[in-house]
Amino acid sequence: MGQPANSSAFAICGRQLTKTLRGAAFVMAAVACCFAADQAPREAERREPTPRSPELHEAKSQLRLVFADHYASADEAERRGKLAAYLLRQASRLQDSPVQRYALLDDAREAAVDSGEVSLAMEAIDQLAMRYEVDRLRLLGAALAQISERVRPAQRAALVTALSATAADGLQSGRLRGAAQLAQLAQEHSLRLNDAELRRTVHELQQRIHSRQAEADALASAERTLEQDSADPGANLLCGLHACQQGNWTRGIACLARSNDTQLREVARRDLAQPEQWTDQLAVAEQWRALGFAQRSYLLSRSRHWYELARTHASAVGKLRIEDRLQELAGQGAGVRPEQPLRDAGTQLVRAESHAPAETSTRSATTRIEVEQLQRPFAALQGHHDTVWSLCFRPASTGARRPQLLASGGGDRDIMLWEFTSAGLPPAAPTSRLSGHSDIVYSLAFAGANRLASGSRDKTVRIWDLEKSTSQPVARHEAEVRGVAHSMRGNLLASCSADRSIKIISLKDGQQQSVAAHQNIVHAVDWLDSTLVSGSLDKTVQFRDSKGSAGSFPVGAVVHDVAACPLGRWAAVCLDDHSVALLQPGRPEPVRLRGHEGPVFGAEFSPDGRWLASASKDKTVRIWAVDDGKLVATLRGHRDEVKCIAFSPDGSWLASAGKDKQILLWRLSGQD
């Protein structure tokens, strides 16, 4: 498109204003106002208050005196970018003066915007949002909108990516007007790029925003209708379903009892009658359960409520029936909030198998999580000199007791081994270092007690003999190896690559099978019992059974990692849209876990399958209860993106690592 980007970016909610005010200052103000107008509450964090204007003005005046030569030389766009980078470095060194640090970061933001440096502007804003009580989305929206007025061709792709990511954040937090405007800007700039995949991604984002806006408009209209006529059946249905999805069952059930859906109206009225006999309570639970599976999955939470009430006074046989139902609901993740409000029956939760999974040798501990112990890491392991991309613990041994051993691999090409003490405490330094790869070590997987598999950017897969500290290549791809995973069944090793293929290697005889799996880079593989799970940049997850047949399921976002539950029930899929999706083979509709504020790069289940830990670009690790999808704890301690995590086999430790080059160890309460 030849016209300026802002000429149509605000057509949805500002046509009259855009006809008269087309400058960059207006673009900033318009986006900022939209993000401010419909902002959603954020998780409370301990951050510094924003400095008052007089204090900030004085601090900025001091900066211009102290760094006068740097400010004076920043008279061109390129030099403004260098000034931004310089101020960011100075801010990272300043720890004990909040006002002056804010001034440095704010000036860095302004200089980055003036120079059109997308990454520098985002870094400055992320630092401000991490340390101070500022509205990150509002600042990002305004900055990116202004950069869009002067973006250089070399920066356009980065701008589109940043606009899309910020719009997705706005969508996730319910700030729809600002999200729509940024997505419109992303769409206009994407048309100037020769990147069909990026244009398709932006288009899909716009569709999601428009769909959410239509739902929000319909809900607002229904609320207005109820203000005039509280008995309107259609408005009661819409408002009732939304209230139930938000967990407001009192209002939701009252509305559904006046709705025009016969089944929902009947069960809602029976619910409102508050039956006291356990048989009647069981009947209400069964109705909610049937509707939850047939229509909307969040209704399953209400069935659980009535099953638990009925269990209190049920007969012995009745309790057996109820326990089976509750176990079934636990497998569905009943109570998990669905991905979007007011969805149709297509969003029902994945139905678990009715039988309990067989015990496996990996279930060596029952892990208890005590949130109080997770306020700060127990230890920080220092040794890597670049990003740590992979972590894995040695599996539990059925023979002689061995000390716990953690392996880590990263951008410095080395693999480090960390052997815990006889008392079960982590070491102060790496026990040994394995050198052999010529580029980044992206993935690690133990293949027994003394063998370790590794995959690298150097295109090779290696097996290390830990007793001899030697290695040999066992496979080679045509591009970087992004993931490796070992399966106990058949002693198979799987590797995946940017060459879009998966290799399956027998560690018994060395035979290999190469599979053309995905349409783009394959980021991760893991074994779900005997089924191979893979995830890709093509936004799909594949389940490949032992016979070689595969099912491919779209997940709507780039897949960064996959993790299999040790009990063989779920695969966790880490997505670029800030969520974790729980999937089962043959059942494509995912359960979504939402809470991260950035792409999710890694995940792992606890040894007993009760907990799922996830690692994100937002610098946090989050722990989820698998049975109901609830967020149990948010672990803060990393200074940069968290790339990988690992549970120890006895369930007593969680390790996390990433871009800040350190490994943090979190002490869980251990075994029951």
Describe it:
The protein has 672 residues and is an alpha+beta fold. The protein is built from 17 helices and 30 strands. A 4-stranded antiparallel beta sheet has the order 2-29-28-27, with no helix packed on it. It has a 4-stranded antiparallel beta sheet with strand order 3-4-5-6, with no helix packed on it. A 4-stranded antiparallel beta sheet has the order 7-8-9-10, with no helix packed on it. Helix 8 (136-147) packs antiparallel against helix 9 (156-172), helix 10 packs antiparallel against helix 11 and helix 15 runs antiparallel to helix 16 (300-313). The chain starts with 14 loop residues before the first helix and ends with a strand.
Mean pLDDT: 82
Helix content: 25-40%
Spatial separation of the terminal alpha carbons = 63 Å
Assembly classification = single chain
| Content of β-strand | 15-25%
Strand order of the largest sheet: 2-29-28-27
Q: Radius of gyration in whole Å, from Cα?
A: 27 Å
Count, helices: 17
Q: Kindly name the structural category.
A: alpha+beta
Please provide the count of β strands. Answer: 30
Give the biggest sheet.
Answer: 4 strands, antiparallel
* Poorly predicted regions: 1-29, 37-45, 333-364
